[in-house]
Amino acid sequence: MVYAHVRLENGLKGGNDRITVHDQQGVRTQISSRSTVQDFYVFPNTTTTFQVVTNSVNMHSAFRIVIFYQNILNPSVTILGSTDLKYFVLNDLHVNSHQTPQTMTSSEGVVLTVARSGWHTDVFDNFFVVEGDFQSPKNVYRMNKFVDNSYFSKTNLTVVGLDNRFSESSVIFTPFSLYKQFDEFTGITTFPEANQLKIDSTSGQKQKKAVTVISMSDYVMFLNVQMSSDPNCSLKAVEAPPTSSSQVLLDFSTVTDYPRNITRKSFSIVAENCAATFRMVSPNSIN
């Protein structure tokens, strides 16, 4: 369980010179003479190839590959019950910051959902999702594959980050029985800049939706909520995980003045026959 941090120092000079990097997760990176130093992270027991093609004459092109090796700690294992939910801020999954990989397991299968923030610099390509046994995985994926769609596994799921780029996003794990209670189950992470969340459970087959909100601070402030006027509209913030017995934290159909605070690091918004737009923020402290 050693991963490789590969630094490619680019000295290509010719306009027709190329280095093409392929990894086992299907990512292809093209490097030309205009590129600078680039870093790659190679997951244990997988392969990354560097193909060098120099078509220019007497341009004195060069390159150097520097490889650093680092151990990955044994993962911490969590068993999810039928009404459990577990989340991690991506910053807490960096193994080169001495964080521990996290494995989720459930007898009914595990669903991974990325709770993406609105921060434009968030990246997911160096967070890995491992299916099956961590030492001898069935599949290894990059997390950016699941940013827009949740991922279901009948076996264990492990998440680990191999670089230390700061992220405002999170990842949520739920057992399948909890996930399938809703026509759509998504997530969002709020941070010190205003986020916008749209939810619509008024059309198509997605009539009951849940969005789990993860806060980067100790609370979430709702700056404004605009919702449909349908008398059958139900729009509530409830404690997470969202179940029939979850405590109601805020019933938006009865609120007329904003801002409003929910002093939880995580909760869920459940919408039935309702469309709404939220503006939310997680300030660093309550005034």
From TrEMBL:
Q: Which Pfam families match?
A: CUB_2 (PF02408)
Show where the CUB-like domain sits: 1-72
Q: Which GO terms describe its cellular component?
A: membrane raft
Transmembrane parts of this sequence:
none
What processes does the entry annotate via GO biological process terms? innate immune response
Supply the InterPro entries for this chain.
CUB-like_dom
Q: What is this protein called?
A: CUB-like domain-containing protein
User: Organism, per UniProt?
Assistant: Caenorhabditis brenneri (Nematode worm)
